[in-house]
Amino acid sequence: MAAPQDVHVRICNQEIVKFDLEVKALIQDIRNCSGPLSALTELNTKVKEKIQQLRHRVQELEQLAKEQDKESEKHLLLQEVENHKKQMLRKTTKESLAQTSSAITESLMGISRMMSQQVQQSEEAMQTLVNSSRTILDANEEFKSMSGTIQLGRKLITKYNRRELTDKLLIFLALALFLATVLYIVKKRLFPFL
User: CA torsion sign, 69 to 73 to 77 to 82?
Assistant: First the structure.
């Protein structure tokens, strides 16, 4: 019959193997994760929890190893504990890589969102420029039309001024002719002998 301490060591070893396999599976899930950042963060959190449980079981196994009566079993268990610690160190490195990867992914997604906003703003600015250009072109066409009207008005005013001068000259000549005729008639009637 196995001693209770041996049973506890065996259970601890089984749990270590179980947690180790779960951590490996989660790391594989992280590698295969192409989903949103939240899924990657959730997997990362699960890995941390499993590594913490694994670390706790390894410490428990180390304590059990130190409590062993037989030096050979104690040495064998301590060597096994060291192997588990080395494996955990590699898993911790993988965990930190996963954290770094998720941080980089989050940063890239932030940059992508910023670039998308910049593109949106550029499109809006471009649309505003197009609308402004259209308004300016319409105003330019209206000014050309008004310029033509103003030129025509200037020509008409100049022609009217010339006509007015001509009319004044004709009125003056007609008045002079009229006065000359009146004077001639008055002279012939009042001074017929002259």
Answer: positive
Supply the pTM of this predicted model: 0.45
Q: Is 119 helix (H, G, I), strand (E, B) or coil?
A: helix
Q: For residue 97, what are its two tokens?
A: 């890589």
Tell me the Ramachandran region of residue 70: left when phi exceeds 0, alpha when psi lies from -120 to 50, beta otherwise. beta
Q: Using the 8-state DSSP alphabet, how is residue 81 labeled?
A: H
pLDDT in tens, 54-94: 888 888 878 877 877 778 777 777 787 788 777 777 756 66
Q: What single letter denotes the amino acid at residue 170? A: L
Residues 6 or more apart whose CB falls under 8 angstroms from that of 2 comprise 10
d(CA 49, CA 88): 13
